[in-house]
Amino acid sequence: MRLRPEQLEGQLAKGLLPVYLLSGDELLIQQECADTIRQHCRDQNILERDVLEAERGFDWNALLEAGQSMSLFADRKLIELRLGGARMDQKSSAALQQYLEQADGSNILLISCGRLDSRSMSAKWVKAIDKLGAVMQIWPIERRQLGPWIAQRLRDRGMQADREVAELLADRVEGNLLAAAQEIEKLHVLIGDKPLSTEVVAAAVASSARYDIFKLIDAALAGNAGHALQMYNGLVAEGSEEIPMLGAISRELRNLYQCAVAIEQGNGIERVLDNARVWDKRKGLYKRCLSQHSVDSLGQLLQLAGRLDAAQKGQSDESPRLLFTEIIAGLAATPIIA
């Protein structure tokens, strides 16, 4: 079945499906949908979780083995398959379809990936998921929808705000939902449940950290590696959490990767950027960056982001700081490691 994000809670109330596919470039909504599914699994006493990163060279037999192996602590487990920027070829599609054919609902498979084009949505593996479970395409929030989305988010947080406040925040974040969520959390810490005014919000926003991750990303897109790395060091010094920072950069990398794929397929860059919902004021940054990168180079940066995610979680001995630096410099097309 096809689901919209706002329909997920209602579907889960009826029972967990054997498989969920979350596709899209809105990292915040995708993460929250995945968290909702994880919580429902825990509520059903599904406590064990296998995470499979389908990077280049991934052995798809690992998915079949995960589906067949018994949980150490219970009869069921959650298997997360993260496709990232990987392309589904004939071999991977066949392996996934074989898993689905053998699935009896004992385990729950949660698949996450970037935006799928119309051709991919018609692929056999997607149709198999559609038949057995749920497919969710997570579309970007358009500018005209962003103010109401922020207003609802403020209400959900127990905060009082009028339309002007929501629109002020919408202008601040320029369509980035992760940034919007961070600003709302910041305001909740600073102001609590007191009524918000445009004056109060403007002052709070103005007093925010001297560096922020979104300015860092723009500096890297512009090719200014030195300034971007200076901002990264400033963010770390100010105590910024590096996991959300990686989330923001990963979202940008996935969007760039999808743009590069579309351009490689013969599409004009203006059409590609419009389809990717790139804001007009950022199109110059995207054009510059895409002129310096290929599908392969952006895929390599996504792989670096996967290694950084593992390092941040203590799953490898690599240095998160070094990997972060390499990603920033690589995005700016200024490699620092041969």
Question: Can you walk through the features of this model?
Answer:
With 338 residues, this protein is α/β, with parallel strands linked by helices. The protein folds into three domains: 2-138, Rossmann fold; 143-206, Orthogonal Bundle (Helicase, Ruva Protein, domain 3), CATH 1.10.8; 213-331, Zinc Finger, Delta Prime, domain 3. It has 17 helices and six strands. It has a six-stranded parallel β-sheet with strand order 1-6-2-5-4-3, with helices on both faces. The radius of gyration is 21 Å and the shape is globular. It starts with a strand and ends in a 7-residue tail after the last helix.
- Number of beta-strand segments: 6
Q: Please tell me how large the radius of gyration is.
A: 21 Å
How are strands sequenced across the largest beta sheet? Answer: 1-6-2-5-4-3
Averaging pLDDT over every residue, what do you get? 84
Structural class: alpha/beta
Low-pLDDT ranges: none
* Count of structural domains: 3
Helix content: 55-70%
Classify the beta-strand content into a percent band. Answer: 5-15%
Under the CATH scheme, which architecture of the largest domain would be assigned? 3-Layer(aba) Sandwich
Please provide the ordered H/E string of secondary-structure elements. EHEHEHEHEHHEHHHHHHHHHHH
